[in-house]
Amino acid sequence: EEITRRALVYFKLKAKYADKLAWHGDVIDLTSVSETGQVLAPDAKEPGTLTEPREFNLMFETHIGAMRSDDSKAFLRPETAQGMFVNFRNVVDSSRVKVPFGIAQQGKSFRNEITPRNFTFRTREFEQMEMEFFCHPSESRQWYQFWRDRRFQWYVDLGIDQKRLILRDHEQGELSHYSVGTADVEYAFPFCEEGEYGELEGIAHRGDFDLRSHMEGKLVREGDQLVVEQGEDG
């Protein structure tokens, strides 16, 4: 569905012509393409404009203290969420709460955006508001559905034109490594191409990835399971 929408935008076709599109061969992920010269970039007029993949760190790097070395390296936070996970046990003990409960936080975040644009929509320094909701694993799906629907309704209740709002569930291939399910509240901003939307808010079912990571170590996905990454010495 997402590929069809982008194809309609690229070829400047109206949605009613979606059934006229024909796909030759299987749709494959860009990471599996060996010859990037054969790829048509999103805004390109012809193939061959993509460069080879390069590493890029979205976190701002800095150094703490007078001496600059690898030992003094630090990074500005790209999100506020991790502070809530780190302080989870402290909140439980000091507030005497039991699941289900939520922790909300607001503060500065920083991201080394490749292409800052569209006024305040994509910037390198911004104010962020996040909430993490904790529940028993057996109830996680129901709570995810609750917050997914409730957050969308919040924008509707504000009076935002519902014709310009969508609640888009992420497809399996675009889910983050920690995500069990993710949905975005998206809005048809004036700077978006016709038929395209920009994210207003994301609602993600993160499972127990974050709490386990802080307790056990770095987690990597093996099949359907998240396991602790092992070094050469175990």
Main traits of this protein?
three-stranded antiparallel β-sheet, 234 residues, alpha+beta
Q: Mind explaining what this structure looks like?
A:
The protein is 21% helix and 23% strand. With 234 residues, it is an alpha+beta fold. The protein has a domain at 58-134. A hairpin with a 2-residue loop joins strand 8 (219-222) and strand 9 (225-228). The radius of gyration is 21 Å and the shape is globular. The mean pLDDT is 86.
In short:
Helices cover 21% and strands 23% of the residues. By secondary structure, it is an alpha+beta fold. The protein is globular, with a radius of gyration of 21 Å.
| Biggest sheet character | 3 strands, antiparallel
- Taken as a percent bin, the fraction of beta residues is 15-25%
Instruction: Count up the helices.
Output: 5
Shape: globular
Mean pLDDT: 86
How far apart are the first and last residues' alpha carbons, in Å?
A: 43 Å
The share of residues in helices is 10-25%
